[in-house]
Structure formats: structure tokens, C-alpha cells
Amino acid sequence: MQKISKLIVITLLIPSISNSLTITLDKAIDRALEHNEGILAAKDGVNQAKAGVMVARSGFLPEISAQASYRKLAELPTIEMEMPGASAMEFKMGEQENYVTRVSLQQPLFTWGKILNGYQISKLNIDASKEDYRKNKNELIFNVTESFYGILVLEEFAEVTEDAYKQVERHIEVVEKRYNEGLASKFDLLRGKVQLANMEPQVIKVKDGLKIAKTGFKMLLGLPQNTPVELKEELKYEPVGAQYIVPLHQCIDESQVNRPEIKSLSLRKQMARNALAIVRKANLPNLAFVANYDYKKPLYFDNEWGTDWNVTVALQMPIFTGLGNFGKVRQASYQLSQAEHGLNLLKEVVEMEVRAIYLQLEEAEKLVESQKANIKQAGEAMRIVEERYKQGLATSLEVMDTQLALTNAKTNWLQALSDYLIASAKLEKAIGK
Predict the structure, then answer these.
(1) Does the residue 235 lie in any domain?
(2) Residue 13: what pLDDT?
(3) 304: alpha, beta or left, given left = phi > 0 and alpha = psi -120 to 50?
(4) Which of 25, 71, 109, 156 could form a disulfide with 98 if both were Cys (CB 3.0 to 4.6 A apart)?
């Protein structure tokens, strides 16, 4: 019976173990790029632009169509002819039942480059869509990185709060022992218990925040919310800011060249220029070749099936369109101007963004270094005050104040490290890497 119970427990645990996911940052990014709904939608935008090239290319090729019709006349038109010395004669025109099957071919011959410009616009739209996709990809990578490091920081912070809670518990045991021996006051004991009770909400809040962070992380990766996730990576400080201290101008130059937003808007400015070229030639004539091949009944004046064909070279030119084409030219000109102004503004915004993130990275790096040294000092102070308290040379208040200072030092270091890691990722994104 006992063996059966153990078997049941093991059986129940196997699904939960097999469904858990241990993941590194690189694997998290790879999974997000494959399963995130936003990035998949952006990829569809690129494919849609590629399909648009097929549509634009069709303008160079002949258009072939087929049609068939049947027409029955209620009454045939007749012509009366007066005959000398005889009664008038009636001649029926056509046949009552008419059948026509037609294959038509239409090929543009000369359109003043309007089809070519449309084709170039569609190709530019592919490149612009690829840059939009790269922008979404970079944002997703940054969001995954930020969420990943955020969870690691919260896990570390949860350990810090739990360690602080346990340390206060140990201190209360010491105070209670000294109180029973008459070496500590009841006030010290009550103060320690109050501080312990005040720490409980913080411990709960950190754990709840960790659950919420993992929920957002799973959503970014396209994971079911009931999938247990364990992050397989250490939260460590690796100085990378030094490589950006001198060449700030290089970071700015790279951002102006590499940022997908700037590339996309530059391409769309070119698209607007091509669109303006198209509408400027809207009033010019178009030359086309048209050919028809018919299989019909009646054929001319014989009520039988036969073939017929015709070819046409047609010249079409708009004479007056109610000033609509003139309005389209002005509209396209303003669209081009908007794209130029938008591109210049975007370049300024990107430069300002790179400068701000660069300064954030420098500041975060300094804070990490200073808080790392502060933890060592606070830890040593905690060790000394606990030993002094055991010897009756320090008060309970001094112990709790020192404990609070140690907790704050660890918290500040974690916050500085989090800011540093996120600023590093932000700078990579800001320069378009």
C-alpha cells in the first residue's frame, strides 16, 4: 500500500516536472522571436510588402481576359425597300440569337515611367517594412532582456528581504533570551517583534511582484501562463560602459546610420518622391496595345460559328479632370515635405535619446561600484554590532538600525545593478544594434 502511494505521488509530480522550463536570456530571446504575436504580425507586414511587388510588377505585363455572352433579341430590326413594279420587300438585320466568346489582350506601351515608379515604390516598401520589422525585433529583444533582468533582480531582492526577516528573527531570539535572563528590557523585545511584523508585508509584496513579472515575461515569450519558468543565469556585474566613455560621438553616428526608424523613414521619403513623380505625369497621354480574338455566331451575315480578330493601338489622354490631378500633385508634394521634416526631427530625437541613455549608463556604473563597497561596509558593521550586543556593549536599537542599513545597502545595489543592466541594453537598442 505504501509503495502504491509513493507511485501515485511520483506519477502526479512527473507532469509538473516535465512542463517546467529552464531558460537562459539567449534562449528566451530566440523563443520570443519565434512565438511572440507582435513580432509575427510584423513579419506578416514584410510578406505583405513582398506581395505588393508582385502586384506592381504585373503593370509591365500584358493583361489577358476572357468573356462569353449570349443575347436574344425580341424583334429583329428590318429595312423596307421599294421595288419598281412590285410590293415593298423587308430585310431582317442580324439574327435573333447571338453568341460571342472573346479573348482580349491589353499591353501598356508607354506610360511616362508611371508603372516603373509604382514598381520602385513597392520595392522600397519591402525595405521599409523590413526596417519596421527590425525595429519591432529590437524592441522585443530589449523588452525580453529588461523583463529577464527584472525577474533576476526581484529574485535577489526576495532573498535579501527573506534574509533580513530571518536575521531579525534571530535577533529577537537573542533579545528574548537576554530578557529572560534580565539583561534586556521588554521594550527591546517588543520593538524587535514590531519590526518583524512590519517586514512581513514587504516580503509578501516582493513575492507578488515576482509573480507579476513572470506573467509578463511568459506573455513576451508566448508561453502558457501555467508553465513554470526558471531563469538559468546569474545576476552579475560586467562593466561595459567603459567602451562608451570616449566615443559618444561614435554612438551618435552609429545611431544615425543603424536605427531602423531612420532607415524606414528615409525609404518612405523616397517612396513619397516617386509618388510625386507619378502624379506629375498624370495628365500625359498613355499608349497601349489592345488585341481581341472572337469566336461567335452569327459571323457577319452568316448564321454560323466563326472566328474574328482585331488589334488597336490606343492613345489616351485626360483633357480636364476638374483640377483633380493638380490637387493630387500638391497633396504628394506636402507628403514629401512632411517626410523630410519628420526624418530631420527623428534624427534629433535619436541623438538626444543616445546622449541621455549614455549618461544613464555612466551614472548607473558609478552607483553599482559605490553600492558594492557599501554592502561590504554594512555587512561588517552588522557583524560587529551583533557581537557587541551579545556582549552587552550595544543596544537592540543599534542592532536593528544596522540591520536596516544593511538591507538598504543591498537594495540600493540591486536597484543600481538593475538600472545598469537595463541602461546597457537601452544603449544597444538606441544605436540600432
Answers:
(1) yes
(2) 41
(3) beta
(4) 71
